[in-house]
Automatic annotation (TrEMBL):
Gene3D superfamilies reported for this sequence: Tetratricopeptide repeat domain
Region (Disordered): 1-45
PPR repeat residue numbers: 207-237, 238-272, 337-371
Superkingdom per UniProt: Eukaryota
Stated name of the protein: Pentatricopeptide repeat-containing protein
Source organism: Nepenthes gracilis (Slender pitcher plant)
UniProt-listed PROSITE patterns: PPR
Pfam families named in the record: PPR, PPR_2, PPR_3
Length: 377
C-alpha cells in the first residue's frame, strides 16, 4: 500500500494543457440529428468572429471594446494565478487551486453574459463568449450556452445559433432543459419551424415553456392545424397555452377558430387573463365585443390598462364613439396611459370628432403624459 503511494508521488508532475493548443472544432450544423462529430467545419470563435452584419450600428466582429473590457476586467485566467504562485510545491494542490478558481471565473463570466444579453448588447455577448472560448482553462457550461443562445435569437444571421446548437451536442450540454428551451426560442425567432419540431422531439420531458414555445411557433407560422393537434396532446392546459394558440390564430386571420377556442376556454372554467381578453377584443364585432365587455366587468379586469386600450380600440373600430368614450371616462384615473389617449385621439379624429379629440389631447397634457409620434399621426 505504502509502496504504491510512494511510487505515485515519485512520478513527475503532469504538465498542464498548452494554452496554444487548438481547441476542438465545432460542427457546421444544418440538421443536428444527422450531425457527425467527425465532420467539423470550423469552431464557434471563427463563426462569431467572421460576422460583419450590423446590429443598430454595431458590428458583431468587434462589439463595443470598452464594454467588453469592463466586462472582463475583474476576470482572471486561472493560469496566471498558477504561474505567479510560487508557494505551491504540490502539483495536486496546484491543480485543485486552478479548478476552484476556474469555477469562480466562469461564474463571473456567466453573470456578465446574462447582463449583456438583458441589456440588448448582443454583439458584446458574442464577443465575450468568443473570449471565453479562447481560454484553455475555462470551458463553457449550460448557463454560458443559454445566455449566448438568447443573444443569437436576436441577431439576423442564424448561422451563429446553428453553430452553438452543434457545440451544445458536442459538449454534452443539450440535455439541460434551459439549453433546449433557448434553442426552441432561437429557432422560433428565426421562423424555422422544422428545427423547432426537431428540437422538441428530442426532449424527454418537455416543460410548460417547451410546450408554449412549440405551440406559439406553430400557430404564428401558419401551422394552425398542427398547433391544434399539439394543443390537444398537452398534458395540462393553463392560461398561457390558451393565450399562445388564440394569439397565433388571430395573427393568421383564423378569427373563427380563435373565438371558438375562447368560448371553449370559458366553458371549461379556465379564467382568462388580460392578455386573453386583449387578443380576443382585437377582432370582435360590436355584438361580440359587448359580450366580452360584460365578461371583463364580471371578472374584474377593468383596472388593467391593456384591457381598457383594447376595449377603446374595439368600440372605435366598430364606429361606436359613445361606448368608447364611456369606457375611457370610467377608467381615466390611474389606469389610462399614453396608448389609451392615443387610441382615443386617433379614434375621435377618424370619425370626425375633432373638438373632442383636441379636448382629449389637453387632458393628456394635464395628466403629465408626454405625446408620442402616434399622438400626431
Amino acid at each position: 500500500m505504502g509502496s504504491r503511494h510512494s511510487t505515485h508521488f515519485r512520478e513527475g508532475p503532469r504538465t498542464l494543457p498548452d494554452p496554444r493548443a487548438r481547441r476542438p472544432r465545432i460542427m457546421d450544423l444544418r440538421d443536428p440529428r444527422r450531425a457527425s462529430l467527425g465532420r467539423a467545419s470550423g469552431n464557434a470563435r471563427q463563426v462569431i468572429g467572421s460576422q460583419s452584419t450590423g446590429i443598430k450600428g454595431m458590428e458583431y466582429r468587434r462589439g463595443n471594446p470598452d464594454r467588453i473590457r469592463r466586462s472582463t476586467r475583474d476576470i482572471r485566467m486561472p493560469a496566471q494565478d498558477l504561474r505567479s504562485n510560487k508557494g505551491f510545491h504540490s502539483h495536486h494542490r496546484s491543480v485543485k487551486y486552478v479548478a476552484d478558481d476556474a469555477i469562480k471565473q466562469l461564474i463571473k463570466l456567466n453573470c456578465q453574459l446574462t447582463k449583456l444579453t438583458r441589456s440588448n448588447c448582443y454583439a458584446d455577448t458574442l464577443q465575450l463568449f468568443k473570449h471565453l472560448l479562447s481560454s484553455p482553462f475555462l470551458k463553457p457550461d449550460h448557463y454560458t450556452l443559454s445566455a449566448t443562445l438568447t443573444a443569437c435569437a436576436h441577431i439576423p444571421d442564424v448561422r451563429v445559433g446553428n453553430q452553438l446548437h452543434a457545440y451544445s451536442i458536442h459538449a454534452g450540454l443539450k440535455a439541460y432543459p434551459h439549453v433546449t428551451n433557448t434553442l426552441l426560442f432561437h429557432y422560433a425567432k428565426s421562423r424555422d419551424l422544422d428545427s423547432v419540431k426537431r428540437v422538441f422531439g428530442d426532449v424527454d420531458e418537455p416543460d410548460v415553456y417547451s410546450w408554449t414555445t412549440l405551440l406559439s411557433a406553430c400557430a404564428k407560422l401558419g401551422e394552425v392545424g398542427y398547433a391544434c393537434q399539439v394543443f390537444d396532446r398537452m398534458p395540462r392546459q393553463n392560461v398561457a397555452l390558451w393565450n399562445a394558440i388564440i394569439t397565433g390564430c388571430t395573427e393568421n386571420g383564423r378569427l373563427n377558430i380563435a373565438f371558438d377556442l375562447f368560448l371553449t376556454m370559458h366553458k371549461l372554467g379556465v379564467m382568462p387573463d388580460n392578455y386573453t381578453l386583449a387578443s380576443v377584443l382585437s377582432f370582435c364585432s360590436a355584438d361580440l365585443g359587448r359580450q366580452v365587455h360584460s365578461l371583463i366587468i364580471k371578472s374584474g379586469f377593468l383596472d388593467r390598462t391593456s384591457v381598457i386600450n383594447s376595449l377603446v380600440s374595439m368600440y372605435f373600430s366598430c364606429g361606436n364613439v359613445m361606448d368608447a368614450y364611456e369606457v375611457f371616462e370610467e377608467a381615466k384615473v390611474g389606469v389610462c396611459d399614453q396608448i389609451t389617449y392615443n387610441a382615443m385621439i386617433n379614434g375621435l379624429v377618424s370619425l370626425g370628432w375633432d373638438e373632442e379629440a383636441l379636448k382629449t389631447f389637453k387632458d393628456m397634457l394635464e395628466a403629465c403624459l408626454r405625446p408620442t409620434e402616434l399622438t400626431f399621426s
